[in-house]
Amino acid sequence: GVYTIHANNNVKSFEVRDFVLPRFEVTIDSPQTILGSDENVTLQLCAFYVFGEAVKGNATIYASVGNFDTVYANISQTKEIEGCQNFTFKAKELLFDYNNCHISILQVQGNANVTEAGTGVEIIADTTYLTVHRQGITFEDKTINDVKKAYLPALIEIETKYANGTPAINETMESCTFYEDEEICKNFTTDNNGVLYFVIPSQIRQFVKIRAVNFPRIERLFNDVMRESSYTIFFNDFQEYVDPMNTSITIMENMIDCTTGENIEVRIPVVFVATEEFTTDVYLQIQSRGQVIAFKKMSVDFTESDLRIREEDKLIPLETTPEGVILGSFVIPVTLSERASPEISILVWFAKEDGTVVADSLNAVVSECLSHKVDFSWSTPRVGPGEEATLRIKGAENSLCSICVEILSAGNNNDLDISSILSVVYNSIARPNEPQTNLQYCLNKYGLSQTEDEQPVSTPSSTTDSSATSKVSSPISVFQPQIIQALHMFNVKMKEEFVEPAPSAAYDLGTVYKAEAALNEGGATLEEESIQERSYLPETWLWLLRTLS
């Protein structure tokens, strides 16, 4: 209420309001990654007012481990706290690896409460679950081209990270495979981004096992304290490339470096296999964020030459080719704008004199080297509840901007960086579906009907595994998703043929369709028999159907 105090004949009025204690928050974290081989497990407890000042008081933290409804351990510690305080527990009291107990603890549950000094106000932290890592290095297969081509090597790319998520830089990796009933192993080293590169020949048909040399399996009292940091690539999951002319190419570039503020000078290496020497025009098309940013045409002599693959990058020597098979390579130089970051789609193709199309495509990562100047400022450095503030942003024309507005509490501040901004670009890339309208055309052509249960698979590409329909890749398949931009310069006509479907071990999706097209710059076609022209061509090309065995 409002009070009036009379003193010495002077009158002064003042107002008494409810006093709300400053709110503070309590969080639990781990200052470092918890490994199964650690001697101690350290949890960090922090208490801060919402305006950033540290809280003084007493804190109690509870660390427990369990499985389903069973609690194996529940330990607590109490300390005075001012801001953040570390609480260290003996690993043998939590992880059980010292007690010959065959229980693999994968999580530590943290609970805590903080009592503010002077007021007795108690805040309880949200329950936190901290991961116990049992593998020192994790692996992610970044190999872009999963198609096996006869006699051509494949570039394998594996991204490695430590348990805390940072790149495993300069780590020695042993790669092993079986060839001619003999195990062959070779050591490679990850680069400055934690990426492991090596080249395998086409004769490897089974698998390659990768093992981190410095992170072996650790056993204590018959318990796997740490699993071996290893990864296996199985090549039976790769598609087989089928080309009746035994001619194919492979792009050997998957990471492009650049310098901030400068155009990107790229030399795209391509290896090829052919059954004869010839000269033809090769086309290069590069897309970034759905737009064609580079197109180039150059004449290439397909003659036997060096593959430009370093010996230290080969897991085993490349396959010896039989007589009549030519191996070689060429390089396509192209200049890209720095705006090509963070990813580009590369398509290389050519058409032989008989109309046969040979092509390869892949997505390559471009270093984050954008140099657009961006400036932003708040209209006022400080505002109170209910007040407004505006954020003014200045950037280069057509720049991509990502704005993140956060309520900063307990001293946490997630800084924006170029990686977080470019993640918006990655998430906005359209993933086109395979064309499906061709099936209805074929059904009508041959007078076939289709029940509702036999409708074609036409779900979004994110939920469809294209490998379920076929383990075979054809030259035309590599044109997607650049098919629209690439084929506008050609007249495309193709043959029609209907065959029985091949049996499928996984799914019965009806007839397996394999695309083939005769592409010719001059509009000529290999067809001797003309087909009825249609004005509605939603599929862009027709289909040649074959049994795949």
UniProtKB/TrEMBL annotation:
Region listing for Disordered, in residue ranges: 452-471
Residue stretches spanning the membrane: none
Comp. bias (Low complexity): 458-471
InterPro entries per UniProt: A2M/Complement_sys, A2M_N_BRD, MG3
All copies of domain Alpha-2-macroglobulin bait region, residue ranges: 249-403
Name of this chain's protein: Alpha-2-macroglobulin bait region domain-containing protein
Annotated organism of origin: Armadillidium nasatum
